[in-house]
Amino acid sequence: MDNLEFLHETEKVSGEKISTCYQCYKCTNGCPVAAEMDIVPHRIIRHIILGNKEKVLTSKSIWTCLQCITCSVRCPNDIDVARIFDALRKISVKEHCEADKDTWLFDSFFLDSVRKHGKLHELEAIMNYKLAKRDLFSDAKMGIGMFLKGRMGILPHNVKDRKQLREIFKKIVGERLGR
Ligand code: SF4
Ligand code: SF4
Questions:
Q1: 84 C-alpha to ligand 2 centroid (Å)
Q2: What are the chain's domains?
Q3: DSSP per-residue codes, the chain
């Protein structure tokens, strides 16, 4: 792989012109979880430009990102940094080198539930996640507490127009996540 191949791949998946970054640090300075990251946002961008593919794709930072889009709003160069992080997740899963499999797994069940019902059915998403992890009991006490306080229903509440919802998922989520 030549040095530019990873840059081109990430630009294609994200739709962002990453090479125009001039390392002003504004994305990192506004990021609420930069202190928790192993590589901060402007450094991730720099590593992409330098072609350091493995370093970027195995980084925990791309899974620490909250997708709050603060970085994207702050970028004076109009680079949607949050979208780049999302693209990096997608590429790392495709290449089976994601540093944090749990986030992706939970994210999949979360989106499946929203796609099916139009809103999150917490119990379904959590049970699917727990079954996949083969860990049914670790958070049972908290789950029972939520259930008793009425914060987690047994049955889903479906939105009326689920056909339109499926179309939206097909157009946006399917394209972005490759599902
Ligand atoms: S804010 Fe934009 S231009 Fe500045 S370092 Fe971050 S991505 Fe690059
Ligand atoms: S979208 Fe991610 S990288 Fe950007 S500011 Fe929010 S948490 Fe940080």
A1: 10
A2: 3-94 (1.10.1060.10), 101-177 (no CATH)
A3: --HHHHHHHHHHHH---GGG-----HHHHH-TTGGG-SS-HHHHHHHHHHT-HHHHHT-SHHHH-----HHHHH-TT---HHHHHHHHHHHHHHTT--S-HHHHHHHHHHHHHHHHHSS--HHHHHHHHHHHHT--STTHHHHHHHHHTTSS-SS----S-HHHHHHHIIIIIHHHHT-
